[in-house]
Structure formats: structure tokens, C-alpha cells
Amino acid sequence: VFFSSFPPSSSSFFSVHPTLRMEFTGAEGQWARFPMWNACCESEMSFNMKTKSSHGLLVYFDDEGFCDFLELLIHNGRISLRFSIFCAEPATVLSDTAVNDSRWHAVTVRRNFKNTTLVVDDEIKWVEVKSKRRDMTVFSPMFLGGIPPELRSVALRLTSASIKDQVPYKGWITNLKVNDSEPAIVSSDGITSDVCEADHVCLNGGVCSIVNDQPICNCSETGFQGKDCSEVYIPEQLQVLRVQKSIFGGITLFFNH
After folding, report:
1. Can you give 203-246 as a three-state secondary structure string?
2. What torsion do the CA atoms of 159, 161, 165, 167 make, to the nearest 10 degrees?
3. Higher per-residue confidence, 171 vs 156
4. Domains recognised in the chain with CATH numbers
5. What mean pLDDT comes out for the span 182-207?
6. Which pLDDT band, with edges at 50, 70 and 90, does 250 fall under?
7. How confident is the model at residue 145 (pLDDT cuts 50, 70, 90)?
8. Which InterPro entries is this protein grouped with (predicted)?
């Protein structure tokens, strides 16, 4: 078998779907809206973050003004988780790990009926709410980095009224997952996202660019192909040498294109 040394053609561009990497500037009115996280029972949400801020709203969702909510904040440089079910006294847990050091930290929130676990890097803490009901009711989308101004102006739509006084988050969030799936951002204001800056978008020297708001990998100078330039390139001109006996008992050599 002979492999051609021809590089991929200039048409070797592929759309990729890398992890969304968001930069939150901390500007007033900043927010990112994601689909509702149905955190009623057994579920988890995780992300990586990097910041030097000591305060800021990371995650918020609720039942739109009744009883249930969950908020995740940076408080004095540490992660604070607070939630309530069925109008019970809110339960709160605060990490010992400081995250305002401009380093990447892994954060996970695990819901298990009345219990909620907070994981920050290797630190694990959990808290239980003293509620007469086990399931958390969620109606709102999941907000990251802040909440829209229209929610701040209508306090009755916020189950946790104090959330409107929290400052927006300033820093990076990446690798957001809900139950091991990456939710698609629905809408946002005041944040920037450059998926080309995420790690391992285009491999083997592939060049990433944004076309129609989607990342595209140009693999033409790499000798690789595929959405992320990870597959060895085998050109269409590949010639396979075949050996076949002729009807006269001899051997015929020919190329198959």
C-alpha cells in the first residue's frame, strides 16, 4: 500500500463543537441564560472557573417567586451555596477553599433531594435543608454570572429577593456540564465567549476561526483531517497496488483509483 504525501486540500475545513469558554467582565447588567436545570431530585452541575474577585454571583435558579431556589456565590473569596425547598429555612454551605487566586478551580453541585453537596477541587461539603418536601421545584432558566435587569426590577419573580443585590461575577467559566452534558447557551448580555481559545479545539496545528458564530478548523497544512484535525489524512488519490493472476497464469499488476 502506498500513501500519498499530498496534503489535504484547502477545502479541509470542519465545524467543531468545543467546550464553551465564557469571560464575564463583571459589568452591571451582565448575565448568561441556559436551559432550566431540573435539579429536583438527583442531578449534578459542574464547571471550571478562574477569578481574582472576592465576591460575585455564579449560578442562580428558582421556582419564579414561590419557595424553592438555589444560589451559588463567591463570598469573601470562597464558594457559598444556599438553597431552600418548600419555603424551609435556607441551608447554606461555605467552602474552605479560596478561589480568588487567579487559578483554575473545579466546582460541582450535586443535588440529592433534601441534600446538596458542594465540591470545590478536592474539598467536599454537603448540607441538608429541613423541609417537609423532598423535591426541589424549578421553573426558571439557569443563570450564570448575573441575572437580567428585568428580574431585578420585579422582586416578586425572584424567590431569593437578596440575589438582586449580588454583584456580577468577574472571571472565566468553562467546561459547564449538567449531568455530563454540555448545555447550549440560550442568550446572554455583557459576556464574551471565544471557543477558539478553549483547549484542544483544533489539534495537530489546525487553525481555528469563527464562521457564522461557529468554530471551524482548517486542517489543510497539518496532514490530518476531521472536525478537530485529529484523524490521519488519507487522500482520495490514494493508490492501492493490487496483484491478480491472469488467465494465462502470469501476474498482472495494476492500480486501483
Report:
1. CCCCEEEEECCEEEEECCCCCEECCCCCEECCCCCCEEEEEEEC
2. -10
3. 171
4. 1-18+200-257 (no CATH), 21-197 (2.60.120.200)
5. 82
6. low
7. very high
8. ConA-like_dom_sf, EGF, Laminin_G, Neurexin-related_CASP
